[in-house]
Amino acid sequence: MTGGIRFLKTLVLGVFLVMPFSAAADDPDFLTVAVGAFDLVQDHDQAAEFRAEYRSDKKIWIVKPFIGVMGTTDSTFYGYGGFLTDIFFGRRWVLTPSLAAGYYDKGNGLDLGHELEFRSSIELSYRFDNRTRLGLSFYHLSNASIGSINPGTEVLSIVYSIPLGPGN
Question: Which of 14, 43, 90, 106 lies deepest, with the highest CB count within 10 Å?
Answer without folding.
Answer: 106
